[in-house]
Amino acid sequence: MDVPEENISFSMPAEWAPHQGCWVAWPRRHDVWRAAAGPAKQAFTEVILAINRFEPVTVVAPGDLWVEARAALPDSIRVLEMTIDDSWLRDSGPTFVEAKITSCPKPAIRTLLGVNWRFNGWGGLYGSYEQDKLVAAKVCEAEGLPYVSTDFVLEGGSIHVDGEGTLLTTEECLLNPNRNPSLTKADVEARLKRFTGASKVIWLPKGLYKDDDTNGHIDNFACFVRPGVVLLAWCDDPADPQHAISSEALQLLQQATDAQGRKLQVVKLPCPPPLQRTEEEWGTLSEEGKENRHVGERLAASYANFYIANGAIIVPAFGLPEADGSAQQVREVAQTVLM
Q: Higher confidence at residue 331 or residue 284?
């Protein structure tokens, strides 16, 4: 049920807050995923099974792929039919917040509620996103939760909160003219505070180097792991463009305080070595995908874009045994999150 935002105060919980489950979309785009999305489906299955060890998972798949998804996953995982354009529910799906609804003279009501941001396909990255615009409302309807719709363009991966009033984001994404061109920085910040309950917004200039598809989402670059502690994707090589981006972010974060007045502790998380799209990978994309992707193109790889389940952290890996040892730092930090 879509409800008006009047008389509602919002509070977005931290990623590590206990939650009822996780929603995942089945990969389908042949212009994004190589080899008709076969390897992607295998990787998604592994991630889904890993998360399902710790919490319920719901998978959505379009009608032509529902049978495939259902057959690939155990019965403990709910698989729903849903028409989608792409498979990134963190971006197109709702942001679940704790809401306080005041309606005098009745007592205030506290409830879980979804924020249905306006989705425009990452600033028009892809021509078709009409179905993804409906995903947030559909998820809330399936869960039987009310939701508030806003005309503010935002993807879930562009913000990160500590659950105590502080929000992290990047200017590269949220001040990009392809998102909310008529709004000033102050306007954007006011809307972030309104719908997440944040009292302080910390702006970083850029996200991860070459994260062009999202225009530098914060979730692949810097994130809170507990109040007062930020994990930052890091590169030691001064010749790598990532070094300057990370160094600038480090300086800003070390000078910042959070909403509670605490100085931030920043933990450097080394990035994997630069990864490029291979000719073999490019060759198995659809013709449309080949036009938009290129051999040798640098991939936006970091270990910061992990998922916090109830009692576990699911960390990215890139098939590089030596480099993936850096993910051990995530596991070490995870102990402070999961204690």
A: 284
Reported as a single tens digit per residue, the pLDDT across 174-216 is 999 999 999 999 999 999 999 999 999 999 999 999 999 999 9
Tokens of 272: 């994997």
Radius of gyration of the chain, Cα coordinates, nearest whole angstrom: 20
Residue 202 and residue 167: Cα distance in Å, rounded? Answer: 6
Question: Per residue in 221-234, pLDDT tens?
Answer: 999 999 999 999 99
As separate numbers, helices (DSSP H) first and strands (DSSP E) second, the chain gives 11, 15
Please give the full DSSP string across 209-232, using - where no structure is assigned. TT-TTTTS-GGGTEEEEETTEEEE
Cα(16)–Cα(51) distance, integer angstroms: 14
In three-state secondary structure terms, 243 is helix
CB 30 within 8 A of CB 87: no
CB 159 within 8 A of CB 218: yes
Domains and CATH numbers, the chain: 8-338 (3.75.10.10)
166: which DSSP letter?
A: E
Question: Closest Cα to residue 269, out of 305, 233, 224?
Answer: 233
Could you tell me if 225 and 333 are in contact, meaning their C-beta atoms sit under 8 angstroms apart? yes
Angstrom distances, CA of residue 141 to CA of 59, 125, 154, 251, 330: 15, 27, 20, 43, 35
Q: How far is CA 21 from the centre of its chain?
A: 16
